[in-house]
Amino acid sequence: MTGATLTVSHETANRALATRLVNASIWLGVFLSGFVLFEPAPYELFVALLIGLWTITGALTIPRSVMFLLITMIVFNIGGIISITQMEDWRNTPLYIASSLFLALSAVFFASLIAERHERLALMYNAWTAGAVLTSLFAIAGYFGVIPDSGSFTLYGRAKGFFEDPNVFAPYLTLPTLFSVYLLLTRPLRSLLPVSAVAAVLLLATFLSFSRAAWGLLLLSCMILVAALFINSRSGKFRMRIIVLSIFAVVGAAMVLAIVLQIDSVRSLFLDRAQLLQDYDASRFGRFERHLMGFMLATQKPLGIGPLEFGYLFGEDTHNIWLKALFDYSWLGFLAYMTMTIVTLAAGFRILFRDRPWQPYLLCAYIVYLGHVAIGNVIDTDHWRHFYLLLGIIWGCIALEAQYMRGNGPAMRQETSSNSR
Known about the structure:
The chain has 421 residues and is an all-alpha fold. It is built from 18 helices and 2 strands. The protein is 73% helix and 1% strand. The longest helix is centred in the last third of the chain and has 30 residues, at 321-350.
């Protein structure tokens, strides 16, 4: 073997090692998003380190297609800084805005990584699913009290896993659950057993969270996914498969629900949580009346009132992302957030059904993001780490599509190389 050959082999081995290390770091970063018992969580520390390393080494390239997300997120956080100026006591608000800015940058970071190599989508979904399954297993075990210190994984009799709040834990599970449903509907029958096991764990954990928003989010997401696959397919055989498997899934879920409801504590909490309106929703000065009062007050506060101040004024947090944006990020932040949301939905929908290697990942992320926009009317999605991961996935796919259409991006080069082989 010549010296030149040895040098080439050594360089190839170094590149392979570097690729494995990069993939491992991305996998671990996404995996850690499922463990948020305290703040700053390991996710923040590790992903901040990744962003710093990628930036310092010059490895981070933000595609032009992602610049819109970056700009609107920066303007959103400038609105937050403006709102701080309206506060006499800043308390911990600078740290709050710093967290907001980090999450915004994390969305841009992951979008840029995806735009560079679309195979990273599968890596991120794998990591998200692994984190969701692990935190779900602890949530289920904690709910039934079969592990030590089980109370750490529940709150008010509701499963929460490694999260502070069941209402954040359960929506976090929605994307891997929906992707499992996608695999069940589209993959060969021989692969259904392991995917079914993953879906069963995630569904049970979602149910035991007793989060009405998450129940509605998952149901809406599954319905949209089934409808999208059915309408987008021209194969009668595939459509029949979707119908049959959907029926089996509904029957199976109903059977599991019937079994779980035999447990008195589960049945009692389910009947209470299953009511569409709780006392704290529609009562005097309840959630919806606070929303109305809040929007009326917001018309008089163009500069906002400062992060988290709404709770001090009304006794409860906003539980509405639009109201949150108005008060915590000023009118400027509200306009930036609303613009970002509308453009994300429009740009994502425009490329949603194009036959690309990344289309399944985009479809599931887009549906779950759409559901998060919907539940944002009754719950505060600000500072949800997985929400910004969803943004990163969608905008990463938007960038991939832009590169593909120009014919000069990594996505196009990889596909051309594959076809030539």
